[in-house]
Amino acid sequence: MKHLRTLNKYFWKYRVRLISGLFFIVLSNYFNVIAPKLTAYIVDKVQTFLPSQNNANVQFTAHKNQTDYLVNSIIGQLEQSDWTFSKVVSACAIIILILAILRGLFMFFMRQTIIVMSRHIEYDLKNDIYKQYQALDASFYKKHAVGDLMNRISEDVSRVRMYFGPAIMQTINILTIIIFCLYNMFQKSAVLTWYVLAPLPVLAVIIYFVNAIISRKSEKIQALLSDVTTNAQQSYSGIRVIKSYVQEHFIKEKFNEQSNQYRQSALSLAKVEALYFPANVLLIGISTLVALLVGALFYHKNLAAAGAGLVMPHPEITPGTIAEFILYLTMLSFPFSAIGWVTSIVQRAVVSQRRINEFLLEKPGIADNDIKPQFDTGSVAVSLKNVDYIYENTGIHALKNVSLEIPAKSRVAILGKTGSGKSTLANVIMRQYEINDGTILFNDKDITNYGLQYHRQLISNVPQEVFLFSDTVRQNIAFGSDRINDDDVIAAAKNAVIHEEILKFQNGYDTVVGERGVTLSGGQKQRISIARAILKEAPVVIFDDCLSAVDAKTEQAIIKNLDEYLTGKTAFIITHRIFSSLNFDEIIVMNEGQIVERGNHETLLALNGEYARMYHQQVTDAR
Ligand SMILES: Nc1ncnc2c1ncn2[C@@H]1O[C@H](COP(=O)(O)OP(=O)(O)OP(=O)(O)O)[C@@H](O)[C@H]1O
C-alpha cells in the first residue's frame, strides 16, 4: 500500500470534491437503510389486521423507541393518526418511494464528484509521468523499452484510476452500508444479529487468502502486458526489416506466445476472482436462512410466553423484524461481494503504482537548473578537459581522457573508424550524457553550471539517426525553431538542397511524412533533418554523419551551401568522408575513444597516419 502514498497529493488537491463525494455516499446510504424499518412496520401492521390474528393485544416492542429520528417521527405520526389500514400502507409506500428517489439523487452526486475527481487525477498523473519522461536523460531511454514506457503511462495509469475512482467510492460505500446495517440490526435485536453474523468469519478468511493470490497474479500480468506491448511496438517500428527478412511468421509466433502467456495468467486471475461471488452468495444465503429460522423460533417462543401470561423473551422479534433483517442481509450482499472486487482493484493499483513510481521517482541522470548562461551566446568557444565517458549499460569506455580547445567560430572535422567515439563526443557536448570525469566548457563556463534547456538552445544538431515526426514537411523543418514563417522554412530547405523535391511531393510542404518519415527516402529524410538544423540558427553546430545517404552531386551542392551557413559558427562535422572543400580549421581523428591525430589537412597528410590513409583511400575510390 505504501506505493499508493504518492497519490495523496492529488487527493489533497481535489479534497473538496472528495469530501463532498464522501458526504453524498453517507447520505445516499442513510436513505437506503431507512426503508427496511418502514417495511418491517408495515409487515407487522398487516398482521394486526389479519382476521385470524389472536395476538392483537400482545405488546411487541419492535417499532417502539427507534433510534433514528426520521423513522421515529414517521412511525409516531402514523400511529397517532386515525387513518385506515390502506391509508397507512399507501403513506408508507410513498415514503419508501421518496427515500429511493433521495438515495438515487445522492448516488448521482456521489458519482459526479468522485468519478469526476478520478478523471482529473488521471489527467494530472499522466501529465506528471509525461513531464518526468521528458526530464529523464538519454541513458534512461537506453535501458527501457518504448512499449514499457507506453504501458506505464496508459494501462498502469488506468488501473490506478480505478483505485482513486471506483475503489475509493465503493470502499466508503461498502463501509457505510455495513456500518448502517449492522448498527440497525444490533439496535433491533442484538441476539438475532449475532446468529446472523456467525457465518461471516469464513468470508473474512476467504478474502484474506484470495487477496494474497490476486496480488501475486496481478504483478505477473502487468509485467507480461508490458512485454506484449513492447513486442508489438517493436514489430510495427521494424516492419520493413521484418518483411525484407521474411520474418513475419517468426514475429507472429513470438507475439502469439507472449499473448498466450498473458491470456493464461489473466484467465487464472479471473478464476480466483470468480471464487468470490459464489462464496458470498452462499454465505449470505446461509445468513438469510439463519435469520428466518432463528427469528421464527424466537417469535414462536414470544407467542408461547405471551399465551401463558409470561414475559416474552424477545419482544423485539416479530415477523416484521425478520423481514427487516432479510432486507439488511440483501443490502449487505453487495458490500460483501464487492469487497473482493474492490480489493482486487486496489491490489492491481498497488502493482501499477509501484511500476509508475519506478519511473516517477527516478532521478534524471543529468542534474538540471534554471540558471541562464552568463556569457555572450552569440559566439561560443568549446573546450573539453580530460573528458571520460563510460556507457553504464555495457561498460564500454567510449571517451578516454579527451581534451580539446576549439576557439569560437572555428570549424572542426571529426573523423575515425566506426565505434571510435565520435557520436559519443557529440552527445557529451550536447549533454545528452553526463560525463564520468573531466569538464566541458562553453566560453570557459562549465556547461553543468547553467540550465540544460539554455545549453541545448545553443546547439544545432543533425543526429546520425534521423528522426522525423508524423507531421507535415513544414512542421518537421520548423520543429524546435521559433521561426516558422514560410520564407525561412523554404530558405532552409533550399540550403539543404531538398526544396525542389518537396515541391514535387503531392502536397508540397504540407505533405505528411508518415510515422518516422516512412514515406521518404533515406537521403530526403537526412536533408529535411539538415534543413531543421539550419533553421535553428544556433552558435554551435554539430552534424553527425549527415550526408551518408545522399549522392555525390547533392553532397557537393549541400557542402557548398553549408560553407556559407557555417561561417561565424563553431562547427563540429562528424564524417567518414573527407570534405576538403569545407576548409576545416582543425581535423581530429579518433580511435578507441581517444584523439590520435589532430591538425589541418596538410599537417595530417604529412603525418602519414590514419588521416593520410583515409584520404588516399578516398582518392583511389573516386578514380
Ligand atoms: N548507447 C550505447 N550504449 C552502450 N554502448 C554504446 C552506446 N552507443 C555507443 N556505444 C559504444 O561506444 C563506442 C563508441 O560509439 P560511437 O557511437 O560514439 O562511435 P562512432 O565513432 O560514432 O561510430 P560510427 O562512426 O559507427 O557512428 C562503441 O564501442 C559503441 O559500441
Automatic annotation (TrEMBL):
InterPro entries: AAA+_ATPase, ABC1_TM_dom, ABC1_TM_sf, ABC_transporter-like_ATP-bd, ABC_transporter-like_CS, P-loop_NTPase, Type_1_exporter. Residues 382-617 form the ABC transporter domain. It is a multi-pass membrane protein. CDD domains: ABC_6TM_TmrB_like. Pfam families: ABC_membrane (PF00664), ABC_tran (PF00005). The chain crosses the membrane at residues 21-43, 88-109, 162-186, 192-214, 275-299, 325-346. Residues 21-348 form the ABC transmembrane type-1 domain. It is found in: Cell membrane. PANTHER family: ATP-BINDING CASSETTE SUB-FAMILY B MEMBER 10, MITOCHONDRIAL, ATP-DEPENDENT PERMEASE MDL1, MITOCHONDRIAL. This is ABC transporter ATP-binding protein. It comes from Polluticaenibacter yanchengensis.
